[in-house]
Amino acid sequence: MPTPKPGGRALEFGIYPGGVAGQLIVPAPPKPDDQAKIFAALGRLRPAGGPFTVHIYRSYMSAANDSAEDTEHRRLVDLYTGRGYGVEIVIRYRRDNDPAGFAKFVRGVVRRFGENPLVRGFQVTNEVNFAGSKDSSDGAYAGSRDALIQGVIAAKREARQRGYSQLRIGFNWFYRTDPGNEDGFWGYLGDHGGKPFVDAVDWVGLDVYPGTFFPPAAPAGSTGDFVINALSQMRQCFLRAAHIPKTVPIHVEENGYPTGPGRSYADQRAALESMVGAVNRYRANYNVTNYFWFDLRDADSSSPNFQQQYGLMRDDYTPKPAFDAYRALVSRLSIRTKPPPSVGPGPAGPVYLRLQCYRRGVFAQLRGSGSSRAEHVTFLVRGRRADDGHHPFGRHIPVEPRERPQRIRVRANVRFPARTRVLAGAVRCAVED
Question: What percent of the residues of the chain are helix, what percent strand, and what percent coil, each to the nearest 5?
Fold first, then answer.
């Protein structure tokens, strides 16, 4: 085991807030979600003065499925960001032989959701290196490697073109399959991705479940050793094969340990403390910046299948001992950079401030589903005031030019029927004479 290096940025934490999990063999349905109980649990997990991010999954399947899923997706993004949670969207590839269509689909998802400042990023595809389960992993679909490459490039291009500077684009790897398959997967990315792909990758994710699939048997208290082994392989071998530099951080995108037959609640807590502790100790060694537990609650606590019991809570949202353990670790280890102040709840959904540069200053605009209920907005920029009393709310505000690009801070006083909400943000612009 290597010696932990000092330093390293403190971790940013999150969780998948649902119960359903991708499963091998025959998938079983989960118990229904209870959104009020989800928010109550997330409120206990979120660190004081720090960010907390949730995973939301969506899929490229069919036009009919996309329409329904897009509506539900919008509802969930509004619900979470309206309460100040970050959102990372996992875009799954679940068709055969359609990488180009997937790339187009990815651009559309980025375009529709990326303007929200609390949509933190996109994971493009899911576990393409694993081909054993269509329910859990995209590697089971033909063309998935090319879909990963083209999708990452497409997502980054769309984000750049639209000025969504907060978005971070990445993909993930499942620890682990046989050595030949891993060499083939990472070699394919290196041979076919090229500079456009490497330049588009902001992070690479790790999905790791010691004591479940690989390795199938491991004492709960030693699971952290396998997480470090996975991080070491990624950083020192596989990312090099794909020509991805050390400056690109690793996110632990999925890490979990289920309860069930032969897996006690005490085992889950010991595994969680071992794995989170290991990631924190070695974060500087491998440039790890983000950590997500999978998942919040069991799909079905009565099931004999451990794949239904990854939750920190039972399916009725009563906490297991691991819940309080994760809450304590997040509180102690989390980065304290606050989420952007430019998103707030409105009476009909989130409201956020969208800022863009133009030749003589900044264009400030009120966005989000809650903005339709606003009655009046006053934009304030360096002593200048711009009022707007009609939806959609937006104003071009001139700013005194400077020789170099300047950071322009904007404040918006948003009046609703029952209250006034203040939003704030900043953008870096080159202003001409």
Answer: 35, 25, 40
Answer whether residue 5 is part of any domain: no
Q: Are residues 288 and 364 in the same domain?
A: no
Q: What is the Cα 8 distance to its own chain's centre?
A: 20
Mean pLDDT, rounded, for 120-134? 95
198 and 267 in one domain? yes
H or E stretch including 35?
A: helix 35-45
Does residue 309 lie in a domain region?
A: yes
**Short-list 260, 262, 258, CA closest to 312:** 258
| pLDDT single digits (tens) 275-298 | 999 999 999 999 999 999 999 999
Residue 25: pLDDT band with limits 50, 70, 90: low
For residue 405, is it within any domain? yes
Question: Domain tally for the chain?
Answer: 2
Asked if residue 414 and residue 292 are part of one domain, the reply reads no
Q: Distance between CA 294 and CA 301 in Å, rounded?
A: 15
Taking the C-alpha atoms of residue 352 and residue 355, their distance in angstroms, rounded to an integer, is 10
Q: Is residue 338 part of a domain?
A: no
| Cβ-contact 106, 154 below 8 angstroms | yes
Q: What is the CATH number of the domain that holds 302?
A: 3.20.20.80
Question: From CA 93, how far away is CA 111, in angstroms rounded?
Answer: 18
Angle, helices 265-281 vs 223-233, to 10°: value is 40
Q: Which domain holds residue 386?
A: 347-429
**CB of 421 closer than 8 Å to CB of 352:** no
- 3 state SS of 253: strand
Residues 272 and 320 in one domain: yes
Task: Name the token pair of 173.
Answer: 């790897």
Distance CA 401, CA 413 (A): 25
Distance CA 146, CA 65 (A): 23
